[in-house]
Amino acid sequence: MKPTVVISACLNGLPYRYNGATVNDELVNKLKPLFNLVHVCPEFEIGLGIPRKTIKLHKVGDEIRAIQDETEIDLTSRLENFANNFLKNLGDVHGFILKAKSPSCGVGSTKVYVNGNVYGKTYGIFAKV
Q1: Which of these, 64, 66, 72, 63, lies nearest to 43 by C-alpha position?
Q2: N or C, fewer C-beta in 10 Å, the chain?
Q3: For the chain, where are the E strands, in sequence order?
Q4: Which strands make up the sheet holding 4-8, listed edge to edge?
Q5: Is pLDDT at 33 greater than 90 in this prediction?
């Protein structure tokens, strides 16, 4: 029986990126046949659709918030709620393959902004939960 791994939908050949694209990663493509894959796209799952306006992580006071650039809508709570529910209902998994630099899925590689300038890097909202 293959191990179960959660994978960002855009890394699994699905056109779920904010611009409707997918990511073609040679290493991920080689690994995919070895696992039972469960795909996830937190931004799509909270109703943002494809394509969608970009989201950036912003430091607001002591918090990191996921804010849609063009609309200035704070999506943090929606992403956190989705992540908590998804993980609660997921069952046993052996690992995650998540999209680097993503405001939802990035693992320590997502830029955080303060007043339009890069402040540092952190985990995306889904990855942090």
Answers
A1: 66
A2: N
A3: 4-8, 36-40, 55-60, 63-68, 95-97, 110-114, 117-122
A4: 36-40, 4-8, 95-97
A5: yes
Q: How far apart are CA 18 and CA 2, in angstroms?
A: 30
CB atoms within 10 A of CB 105: 29
**Are the C-beta atoms of 52 and 43 separated by less than 8 Å?**
yes
Region for 127 from its dihedrals, namely left if φ exceeds 0, alpha if ψ lies in -120 to 50, beta otherwise: alpha
pLDDT of residue 25: 87
pTM of the model: 0.93
Q: In a 3-state reduction of DSSP, which class is residue 76?
A: helix
Q: What is the mean pLDDT of residues 34-59?
A: 97
Question: Under a CB-based contact definition with an 8 Å cutoff, are residues 4 and 35 in contact?
Answer: yes
Residue for token digits 């990126």? Answer: 17
| 71-106 pLDDT, tens digit each | 999 999 999 999 999 999 999 999 999 999 999 999
| The token pair that represents 125 in the structure block | 């909202």
Residue 72 has a CB neighbour count (10 Å cut-off) of: 8
The two tokens of residue 109 are 């590689």
